[in-house]
């Protein structure tokens, strides 16, 4: 299956307008359960586990409000509920709690830049093996054969997205970074422009330390920002 390469800007704009606050900022959100989160530690790369002998994570806690995606406003990204390609459910804390810096790339199957940047995400994932860094791709919409700008993200779509490497990303051999779907589309609350993808780097506490939307960041920039956050830098 060749993933349709259409921008779908109008559909995303409408979705963002419906989910965002009137001033373009994310609406207020209630804090999640304040209990500790423990990462599995023994899951494979597609399930968000540790890689290549990285030390097991200590207990971590859900991020605290206010929530958002703008690093200039001292906000955190909430632990949104997501579904893996195998149908099992989890939340973003499962990935965040495995690392000191996590890149969440939020996009859709019909979004051409989201398709294009996937190979870069995989390269960043590969180059940070053994570091306390996580890279996760989140898809809030799928794609259909006609290239429609909105279709439900299903586990079958997720499985095809991962499997169709030869059609979509000929520069990489396999897509082993964690890919999850977010069919509830709560992630749309955090878009401040009407163009995907939205790339967000959070620290271990879920604080947003870096974010870019409507652009495909260079691999060197992503690596530098992730390593800066993982090392406790500003």
Overview of the molecule:
- The chain is 24% helix and 17% strand.
- The protein has 234 residues and is of the alpha/beta class.
- It has a single domain, classed as 3-Layer(aba) Sandwich (Glutaredoxin), CATH 3.40.30.
- A seven-stranded mixed beta sheet has the order 2-1-5-4-3-6-7.
- Helix 3 links the parallel strand 3 and strand 4.
- The longest helix has 16 residues.
- It starts with 8 loop residues before the first helix and ends with a helix.
- The relative contact order is 0.23.
- The N terminus is likely disordered.
Task: Describe the SSE topology.
Layout: H1 9-19, E1 81-84, E2 89-91, H2 92-96, E3 101-108, H3 112-127, E4 133-141, H4 155-163, H5 165-168, E5 179-181, E6 198-203, E7 208-213, H6 219-230
Parallel strand pairs: 3-4, 4-5
Antiparallel strand pairs: 1-2, 1-5, 3-6, 6-7
Name the helix and strand elements from N-terminus to C-terminus, one letter apiece. Answer: HEEHEHEHHEEEH
Low-confidence parts: 1-56
Q: How is the largest sheet built, in terms of strand order?
A: 2-1-5-4-3-6-7
Outline the biggest β-sheet.
Answer: 7 strands, mixed
The CATH homologous superfamily name equals Glutaredoxin
Q: Percent helix among the residues? A: 10-25%
Mean pLDDT: 77
């Amino acid at each position: 299956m060749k993933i349709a390469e259409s921008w779908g800007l109008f559909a995303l704009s409408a979705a963002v307008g419906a989910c965002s606050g009137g001033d373009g900022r994310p609406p207020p959100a209630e804090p999640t359960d304040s209990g500790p989160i423990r990462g599995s530690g023994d899951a494979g790369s597609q399930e968000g586990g540790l890689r290549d002998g990285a030390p097991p994570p200590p207990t971590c806690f859900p991020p605290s409000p206010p929530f958002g995606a703008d690093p200039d406003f001292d906000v955190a990204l909430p632990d949104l509920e997501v579904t893996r390609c195998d149908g099992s459910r989890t939340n973003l804390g499962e990935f965040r709690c495995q690392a000191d810096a996590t890149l969440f790339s939020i996009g859709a199957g019909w979004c051409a830049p989201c398709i294009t940047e996937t190979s870069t995400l995989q390269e960043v994932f590969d180059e940070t093996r053994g570091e306390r860094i996580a890279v996760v791709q989140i898809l809030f919409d799928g794609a259909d054969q006609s290239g429609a700008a909105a279709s439900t993200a299903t586990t079958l779509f997720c499985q095809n997205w991962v499997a169709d490497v030869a059609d979509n990303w000929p520069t990489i051999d396999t897509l082993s970074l964690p890919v999850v779907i977010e069919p509830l589309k709560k992630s749309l609350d955090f878009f401040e422009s009407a163009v995907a993808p939205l790339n967000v780097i959070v620290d271990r506490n879920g604080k947003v330390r870096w974010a870019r939307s409507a652009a495909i960041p260079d691999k060197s920039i992503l690596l530098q920002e992730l390593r800066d956050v993982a090392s406790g830098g500003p």
